[in-house]
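Researcher: We're teaching a course module on how sequence relates to structure. For the next exercise, students receive a sequence and then see the predicted structure as tokens, so they can try to spot secondary structure elements on their own. Here is the exercise chain.
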Amino acid sequence: MNHETILRFRKQRGVNLGSWFVLEHWITDDPFRCAHVPGQSDLDVVRGADARRILEEHWDTWIRETDFAWLAQRGVNTVRIPIGYYHICGADPSVLKGTAFHDFGYVYGGAWSRITGAIELAEKYGMGVLIDLHAAPGKQNNDAHAGTSDASTFFSEKASRKHTITVLCTLVRLLKPFRNIIGVELLNEPHPPSDSDLQHWYTTTIREIRTIDPQIPLYLGECWRTDAYVTFVERLAPALRGGLLVLDHHLYRCFTGSDNTTKAAEHARALADPNGGTQKVFENAAERLGRAGGGLVVGEWSGALNPGSLEGWDGERKEYVDAQMGVYEKWCGGWFFWTYKKKGGKDVGWSFRDAVEAGVLPGWVGGIKVDRVKWEAKDRRVVGEVPVRKDVREKVIAGHIGYWAQYPGEYEHWRFGQGFDIGWADTYAFFNTAGRVPGFLGNFVIVPEIGFKGAWARRRTKDHGKGYWEYEHGFLQGAKAAEEEFRRVWGVK
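Model: And here is the predicted structure for the students to work with:
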């Protein structure tokens, strides 16, 4: 099991590095000080005065190495970096041809070296990187964070859609040398006129990218229509076996009228309810995507609430954040808080750093806590060779057989046992890679856990026939039992 595979399939606990490359005025207004009217987008900035100096100064100061160190010490193992197509012109100037940024190569020429520097810094601190195409040619939505203040033309102009495929193929080629790329997000928050328009474009794009890199995970924005895009992945996956296909859902509770009249405590209760709408949607999506060889993440979420949702009691926002994390940890292959930092005073709703320092987010988000000194002093080969606990195995298998004995039918319970053994062994194989990146982890070691369990289970057997469900159930039970055993022996509360 190589390093690259571990990073791609582990549980991703991440943060968005917002307004580093694709700028957002509400996060930091510094780069907009000389921007052209209306002063809300990247294109407005480059049309203003002194753009190159302003942007290069911003790229070199907004996120520094000390920020990566701070994140690693709190268990963050992945960052999502939003970029625009124009940010890669320093590596390939042709990406600007025929676009709104065609005259500004001299401004963005230094961006790509900063992006690759960020990727290298992330690897130094044991982090994976999800590169997100936040701004595509023609704009995939009408927001200023899609690159310009103009209206979107992505879905009305065939040339923009075609050029975006070229941009993404170029991006994938450029990223191939980096071992810590966990995936590429094809479009951030696309706003198509219909699902069929976007899904047709996704299909064409994925086929093109797979000819360049068959294994790179591809993340797909699902337009807040999760079930429809789960069905799409189920249909698409058999013809495109290879790297992960991951749906990216964004969850906020502060934008609609209904959100704003719902109290924070009720938002939390609704999210935490195992029979509630959100959990049922996520449960269904996680199971179906896993069997298709894919997965689900929440690529953006926050602690932000409308003032109308807040009642002023200590802990209400933390309760809301805890409820979200509980859902994501249970059903998703990963999550990415929006955003790492924000200028303009403390903002515990939108700034990860402020939320951690205020206790709204936990000081450690890295999952299983393992004491670094204890771990480094131990011969970790022992961890990798932990045999299946026979008593646990027998108990779990007996429970499985006993349950299905209520329902007469033809079963292959040996498949459950096979799955249990593989789930246990692979869970420990992931755990045993902990600490391979020296230093920078504070008092605790970041322990990789299998994140996309369904997809991982599928790739570990070639038999996906009618008996697969028993193998899959066994795998998940074996992984759960191994994690419980590891926590018992190594975990720090």
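Model: If you want an answer key for the exercise: The domain at 3-367 is CATH 3.20.20.80 (TIM Barrel). The first helix runs from residue 3 to 9.
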